[in-house]
Design a protein that fits this description.
The complex is a heterodimer of chains A (about 575) and B (about 190). By secondary structure, chain A is of the alpha/beta class. Helix content of chain A is about 35%, strand content about 20%. In chain A, the strands form six sheets. In chain A, strands 3-2-4-5-7-6-12 form a seven-stranded mixed sheet. A five-stranded mixed sheet of chain A has the order 9-11-10-13-14, with helices on both faces. Chain A has a five-stranded parallel sheet with strand order 15-16-17-19-18, sandwiched between helices. In chain A, about 55% of the residues are buried. Chain B has a single domain (about 5-190), classed as 3-Layer(aba) Sandwich (Pyruvate-ferredoxin Oxidoreductase, domain 3). Chain B has a six-stranded mixed sheet, sandwiched between helices. In chain B, strand 4, helix 2 (about 80-85) and strand 5 form a beta-alpha-beta unit. Classes of the chains: A alpha/beta (about 575), B alpha/beta (about 190).
C-alpha cells in the first residue's frame, strides 16, 4: 500500500514496522511529529520526556531491557542528551536503539545550524541520512538491524526538508519483535573506569567492522550517468537537489555517512576525473576524503551556511537550471515589506513583554514562542541562548554586576522550558543566594512546536490524564519564598508583581498564567475602536497586535477575524476608545 | 503533469491553511498514481510569518523544492504574499490571488506601509491573474477557514483532473465533521473560475 507521508511520519511508520515498543522524545522543530505519530500506534509506549537527556535515558533503559526503541530530538536536543549518548556508545544496546537527530540547516526554527553528523563521529556511532520519506521509512528499519547486529546505538540524521517534506511511501507490515532476554552484565552496562576500559576497544573494533560493512551496504550506491568526467558524492536532501540539477551526472549516494566505505569511495574517485562533494553545512565527508588523500572540491565552491536548493547546486556545478529559464517576473514586484513571525493575536505573552519594555528591564530570555518578544515593537529581551539558559544567565549577570543591577533585571522562561531545564537554574539561584526575579510564562503547553503536553499539563502524549506537576509547590520546594501568580492579560497586575519582586532582596518567582490562545475552543467577543473617540495617538500600536489594522490618517480598525477579545489594546487606550463590541 | 513535473506554490500567512491545501494536492497526485513531493516548514514561521507550501507532481520527482521561474501555478492566500513569491511563477504560469490583506509586523508597528498598489503591481506583472475575495466566499458558507478550499477549487479548473478525484482526495484529508463545509467551499471556487 502507498501513502503520502512526511519524513517524520515515515520515520514513525518505519519504527513501528520494525517492531519498536518504546519511544521517547522532547518536542523540537523539526523533530516533533515523529513521537506525535508514534503515539498513535497502540502497540508502542510513547512519551514526552521532560527533556532530551531523560528521553535518551528512558530509551537506553528500554533497550538494555531488551526492547527496540526510538528516541527523537532536534539537533540542539542532542547537546542535552550528549552525556548519556557518548557512554551508551561504550555499553552498546541489547534491543536496538535508534536516535533521530533532526538538523535544521537554514535555521528555520532554531538558534544555530550545527551539523550533527559530527556527533556520530565524536560518539563513534553509525549515522544514516535518508533523502526522502520512502528512505526515512526504509533506513529506520535498516537502522534497527545495524543497531542489533553491531550492538550500537544508531543515529538517523534528518534535515528540515526531509523531515517536513512529504512524498510517496510504500508501506509494509509490522514485525512483532520479541523482547530480547535481559541478562545482568555489569562489565558491559556499569561504566566504572575499569569496565569502560574494557569497552573502549570494543567500540574501536566496532567502527572497523562497520566501515567494512559500509563497503557493500546497499544504502551506499553508485548511479553512473552519461557524464563520467565529474563524480558527485552526496547524501540526504542534497542527493535530490543533485539529481534535479544534474540528471546526467555520475553520483555516489551515501546512505550511511559514518563510518565511510574507503574502498567504494576510492574506487569511485578513480573512475572519474574530478570529485565534487555536495553537502550542506560542514565539510564532514570532504574532511575524510582529504584525509585519505583523495583530491575533492567541496566547500571551495559550496557554502557552509544555510540550506541548499537545486538552483544553488546547478549554479555551483556550472549547469543550467533543470527546468525552464528563470523568468523576468522578479523585476516587477517592487518593495515588499518583510513578514517575520510574531506573537499571535491574543497571545498571553504580549502584555507581559509590554510591561518589561515599559519598565526598561534587562531580560535574560529563553526558547519558545515568547522569544518573539525580542522583536519590535516589544523588543524586550537581551539574551536567548538555549533551553533553560535564562535563569542561570540572570544569576551570572547579577554576580558580575551586583545586586543593584539585579533590581533592573528579570529572567523569562515558559512553563515547558522551565520543566525541561529551568528547574536546576532556579535551584542555583536559591542555593547561591541570588536575588533574581524569574518570570514563568505559564500558558499550560509546549506552544511553539505545536502544542505538546509536558509534566505540568496533566496529560500524556496520548492525551490521557496523568499527574500534573504543581508549579507553585515545585518552586517553593526549591526554596523560593516569594511566589506570585498573576493573570497574564492584566498588565497592571503583572507590572505591580514585577515591581514588588524586583525590590525584594531574595529570589522570587512571578507566574503569569493564561492558556495559549490557540488552544481555546471559543474566543471572547472581539473589541472595536470607536473612531470618533480615537485621537490617533498610536499608543495601542506599542503592543504590536496583528488584529489592529492601521491606515494613514485613520483610526485603527479591529479585524474581527483575528481579534480574540484579550483586551490588551483597551488597557493601552487612554481615550477609552477601544471597547468590547456590543458594549 | 503526467508527462512532466508540474510545480505548484501555495503561499500565505501562517495559520491560513496552506498546509492542508498541500495535503489535498498530494492526495490527488497519489490517487492519479503520480509521484509527488510536498515541502513546507513548520515551527516558528507558522506564527504569523510568511509561509510557503511547495508541491511538485509528475512521473518522477526528485527535489521537493521549486526553483524560481518554474511554478506552473502560484496560489496566494494573501495578496502581499502573491507579490513576494511572484518571481517563482513560470512565464506562462497561472496566478491565483486571494484579495485579502493581513498586515505584517513592520506595518503593524508603523515601520512600513502596506502598499496600496499591490493588486496593480500584480496585474502589471501578470495581466491574466485571477483575483478573488475568497474570504468573503468562504464566509458566505459560514466557513471562515475555507479560504484554502475556495482557492483550490479555482486551481482545479486549471489542472486537468476530474472533480471526482478531488472529492475523493478531500474525503481522505479532512475530518468527517468538516467534509461538507470544505466540499462546499471547494465547489464554490470551482464554479467561480
Amino acid at each position: 500500500m502507498k501513502a503520502i507521508l512526511s519524513g517524520n511520519e515515515a520515520l514513525a511508520r518505519g519504527a513501528w514496522e520494525a517492531g519498536v515498543t518504546v519511544a521517547a522524545a522532547y518536542p523540537g522543530t523539526p523533530s516533533t511529529e515523529i513521537i506525535e505519530n508514534m503515539a498513535r500506534y497502540p502497540e508502542v509506549y510513547s512519551e514526552w520526556a521532560p527533556n532530551e537527556k531523560v528521553a535518551l535515558e528512558v530509551g537506553l533503559g528500554a533497550a538494555i531491557g531488551g526492547a527496540r526503541v526510538l528516541v527523537a530530538m532536534k539537533h540542539v536536543g542532542v547537546n542535552v542528551a550528549a552525556d548519556p549518548l557518548f557512554t551508551l556508545s561504550y555499553t552498546g544496546v541489547n534491543g536496538g536503539l535508534v536516535l533521530v537527530s533532526a538538523d535544521d540547516p537554514g535555521m528555520h526554527s532554531s538558534q544555530n545550524e550545527q551539523d550533527n553528523r559530527y556527533y556520530a563521529k565524536f560518539a563513534k556511532l553509525p549515522v544514516l541520512e535518508p533523502s526522502d520519506s520512502q528512505e526515512a521509512r526504509d533506513f529506520m528499519i535498516q537502522a534497527f538491524k545495524i543497531s542489533e547486529t553491531f550492538d550500537t546505538p544508531v543515529m538517523l540524521r534528518m534535515t528540515t526538508r526531509v523531515a517536513h517534506g512529504q512524498s510517496v511511501v510504500t508501506l509494509g507490515e509490522r514485525a512483532e519483535v520479541p523482547l530480547k532476554e535481559y541478562v545482568k552484565n555489569a562489565a558491559k552496562f556499569v561504566m566504572l573506569p575499569g569496565h569502560a576500559r574494557g569497552r573502549h576497544p570494543v567500540v574501536e573494533q566496532r567502527l572497523i567492522d562497520l566501515a567494512a560493512f559500509a563497503e557493500t551496504l546497499p544504502l551506499n550506491t553508485i548511479l553512473w550517468g552519461k557524464d563520467r568526467k565529474v563524480g558527485i558524492i552526496t547524501s540526504g536532501a542534497c542527493y535530490q537537489y543533485v539529481r534535479e540539477a544534474a540528471p546526467e551526472a555520475s553520483v555516489l549516494k551515501l546512505g550511511m555517512t559514518f563510518p565511510l566505505p574507503e574502498q567504494l569511495i576510492t574506487g569511485f574517485a578513480r573512475q572519474v576525473e574530478e570529485v565534487i562533494i555536495v553537502e550542506e553545512l560542514e565539510p564532514f565527508l570532504e574532511e575524510q576524503l582529504l584525509a585519505w588523500g583523495i583530491p575533492v572540491k567541496g566547500k571551495e565552491i559550496f557554502p557552509r551556511l544555510g540550506e541548499f536548493s537545486p538552483e544553488l547546486v546547478a549554479e555551483k556545478l556550472g549547469a543550467a537550471p533543470a527546468g525552464e529559464e528563470i523568468a523576468a517576473t522578479a523585476t516587477v514586484t517592487g518593495e515588499v515589506p518583510a513578514r517575520p513571525p510574531m506573537l499571535c493575536p491574543g497571545c498571553p505573552h504580549r502584555g507581559v513583554f509590554y510591561v518589561l519594555k515599559k519598565k526598561n528591564l534587562v531580560v535574560t530570555g529563553d526558547i519558545g514562542c515568547y522569544t518573539l518578544g525580542a522583536l519590535p515593537p516589544l523588543s524586550a529581551m537581551d539574551t536567548c541562548i538555549c533551553m533553560g539558559a535564562g535563569i542561570g544567565a540572570a544569576l551570572g549577570m547579577e554576580k558580575a554586576r551586583g545586586r543593584e543591577f539585579a533590581q533592573k533585571m528579570v529572567a523569562v522562561i515558559g512553563d515547558s522550558t522551565f520543566m525541561h531545564s529551568g528547574i536546576t537554574g532556579l535551584m542555583d539561584v536559591v542555593y547561591n543566594q541570588g536575588a533574581t526575579t524569574v518570570l514563568i510564562l505559564d500558558n499550560g503547553i509546549t506552544a511553539m512546536t505545536g502544542h505538546q503536553q509536558h509534566p505540568g499539563t496533566g496529560k500524556t502524549v496520548k492525551q490521557e490524564p496523568t499527574h500534573q506537576v504543581d508549579l507553585e509547590a515545585l518552586v517553593r520546594a526549591l526554596g523560593v519564598k516569594r511566589v506570585q501568580v498573576v493573570d497574564a492579560y492584566d498588565m497592571a497586575a503583572v507590572e505591580a508583581a514585577i515591581t514588588g519582586e524586583l525590590a525584594a532582596d531574595e529570589p522570587s518567582v512571578v507566574i503569569t498564567r493564561r492558556p495559549c490562545v490557540l488552544l481555546l475552543k471559543e474566543n471572547d467577543p472581539p473589541y472595536t475602536v470607536m473612531a470618533e473617540q480615537c485621537n490617533q495617538c498610536g499608543r495601542c500600536r506599542r503592543i504590536g497586535c496583528p488584529a489592529l489594522v492601521y491606515r494613514k490618517g485613520e483610526a485603527p480598525v479591529v479585524d474581527i477575524t483575528l481579534c480574540t477579545g484579550c483586551g490588551l489594546c483597551a488597557q493601552m487606550c487612554r481615550q477609552s476608545a477601544i471597547v468590547k463590541a456590543g458594549e | 503533469m503526467r508527462n512532466q513535473v508540474t510545480n505548484i506554490l501555495l503561499v500565505g500567512v501562517g495559520g491560513q491553511g496552506t498546509v492542508l491545501a498541500g495535503k489535498l494536492l498530494a492526495q490527488v497526485a497519489l490517487q492519479l498514481d503520480l509521484d509527488v513531493k510536498v515541502s513546507e516548514i513548520h515551527g516558528m514561521s507558522q506564527r504569523g510569518g510568511s509561509v510557503v507550501t511547495q508541491v511538485r507532481i509528475g512521473p518522477r520527482v526528485y527535489s521537493p523544492v521549486i526553483a524560481r521561474g518554474t511554478a506552473g501555478a502560484v496560489v496566494a492566500f494573501e495578496k502581499l504574499e502573491a507579490l513576494r513569491w511572484l518571481p517563482y511563477l513560470a512565464p506562462e504560469g497561472k496566478l491565483i490571488v486571494n484579495d485579502q490583506s493581513i498586515d505584517p509586523l513592520p506595518v503593524i508597528t508603523g515601520a512600513a506601509e502596506y502598499p496600496a498598489d499591490v493588486l496593480d503591481r500584480i496585474r502589471q506583472a501578470v495581466p491574466n491573474a485571477t483575483v478573488v475575495k475568497a474570504l468573503d466566499i468562504a464566509l458566505s458558507y459560514d466557513n471562515p477557514r475555507g479560504v484554502n478550499m475556495v482557492l483550490l477549487g479555482i486551481l482545479a479548473r486549471h489542472l486537468d483532473i476530474e472533480p471526482e478525484v478531488w472529492m475523493e482526495a478531500l474525503a481522505r484529508v479532512v475530518k468527517p465533521q468538516t467534509l461538507e463545509s470544505n466540499r462546499k467551499a471547494f465547489q464554490a471556487g470551482l464554479a467561480l473560475a
